[in-house]
Amino acid sequence: MTKSAVSSVRYASFKKILEYTFLIIVCLLSIFPFYWMLVGATNSSADVITGKITIGGYLFKNIKTMFETLSIGRAFWNSLRTSVIQTLVSIFVCSMAGYGFQIYRDKGKTRLMNILLLSMMIPFATTMVPLFKMFSKLHLLNTTLGFILPSVSTAFLIFFFRQNSVTFPLETIHAARVDGLGEFQIFLRIYVPIMAPTFAAAAIVTFMNSWNNYMWPLIVMQSQEMQTMPLLVSGLTAGYVTDYGLLMLCVSIMTIPTVVIFFTQQKRFIEGVTGSVK
Length: 278
What we know:
Blueprint: H1 3-40, H2 45-49, H3 59-69, H4 72-103, H5 109-119, H6 124-137, H7 144-148, H8 155-164, H9 170-178, H10 183-194, H11 196-211, H12 215-220, H13 229-235, H14 244-264, H15 266-273
């Protein structure tokens, strides 16, 4: 082997070592906040403040304090119930809208889609007060319906389904129509199974947004009985003294559903984001 070949091999090996070193460092930096959160749940408030990053012996004490002082089960159920309902309704409505925008021919649909995309530039703060007044007059405060209605149809999800439907085989729909299937049957029996990765990705994004939603539940959920997990966690920092061990424990519990859903549906999520059609 010549010297130039040896140098090339050494350079390639050195380059690969640098790449893997960089990836390992980035991975550790990404994982560290989760590690510190879990470790903080086992430590006292003083230990968390001092930056202790080793496992402590206060886990069971923090758990006991949590159940004695907080309605963690009720808040968890409220968040889970509203998030699941909002995800199912939003996916159904937005998928049908995205399907219609792509499959059916109409001269004005592009203009309408542009208007929908333009609505994404409007911040929620500008619509917050009108929404509150409207929901107050409709007696929808402190209700699950009041929680999910503003997010039932979003421009992002409609655009997401529309873009992923670009590669949808239209010949399949034409064949189904010839066989006598109705439009709703075509949507349920053909479109939904083929676009399963897109539905999974949209469901994950919608569930995470609903689960972590803070501003609108703070406005519309005005009683302790309807309190969600973000509101519960936020309330732990509202007093004069914050128990950071308890706070870390509640935050750890709050992340469980999103972590489970993401890792169980990770493959479909990646397929849906990349726009693949199976």
